[in-house]
């Protein structure tokens, strides 16, 4: 039995994750050496050593979630724990939170910082997937099948926006939209939902426009046209301008591993949000291509698992987790390359940071577990059912009953 289960895991996803994490560890070391010494006054391998510790935790959580049957999380008691812990962890920030990056988004325990909003992303995926999987019989009934989880979602997003962290709110909203679109809603119900959301959100946005559309956020939007303009280059456009210089300097083959110039104090957050700029500068298009293609493989494989899964809960989980990884990667890459405003979103599996890594560990562990159940059902359950069918001989022919 154990051998059959082990054969059914999707090891291609596991290999892709290992390659990304190993590559990310090398690039965190390369990108953070100067920052560690110049900005924080710590040894050059400080962030590298901490990332190794987070990756060890990543491996433990990933293995646990890959073994734990994902259907356990559909239990009402488990879902209540996810909902309550998400709300409490976000409310607690207003009392015990630590301010970093102009946002009160972190709990600080000595040298360790934990960002609860990262874990809330996964809690939202599990909760929405479980709810809409259970409501398949009346998924198109707005009051009974659509609205209840959206109230929880709205409350969670409001708490995160108050930190303030608009980037995370956008990611959660996009993930929720992905799950909704894959839940089986018909066009009529979807249209009704969009109209109601517009009616509710437009007045709220206008009422809180001073809070949402701050000078800093509007500045990030304005600099997209030309971050090198005199009025932007040393202010709102500083990060993006140096990101462009870093990406452009790498060319096709890059300057060589460890030879980035922009990471030497010119490119802020070179080991977190802007690590892809350092990869482009040092390893050129080959390094960038490797990261994008490997992340894309995990996302596409997750979508395939979702399509193959016959269980609505497992299917929505796969779509939601694929959405989490794909949306976060797109926002990071688009921000670094000046396609959209910067949102302070880490690059999955590559950027330095424990909260993001641990969330991805749990999420990808669940994804691999779903793939195991899908493959097990295809390889063994269907064959067993086929063999157990009774045969009846009549007129010289064999009939399956």
In words, what does this structure look like?
It is a single chain. The chain has 401 residues and is mainly alpha-helical. It contains 14 helices and five strands. β2 and β3 form a beta hairpin. The longest helix has 34 residues, at 275-308. The mean pLDDT is 86.
Q: Which features would summarize this protein structure in a list?
A:
14 helices; 401 residues; two-stranded antiparallel sheet; mainly alpha
Please write the string of helix (H) and strand (E) elements. Answer: HHHHEEEHHHHHHHHHHEE
Please state the average pLDDT score.
Answer: 86
Low-confidence stretches: none
Spatial order of the strands forming the largest sheet:
1-2-3
Give the fraction of residues assigned to helices: 55-70%
Strand share of the residues? 5-15%
Number of helices: 14
Radius of gyration: 23 Å
Briefly say what this structure is:
The chain is mainly α and 401 residues long.
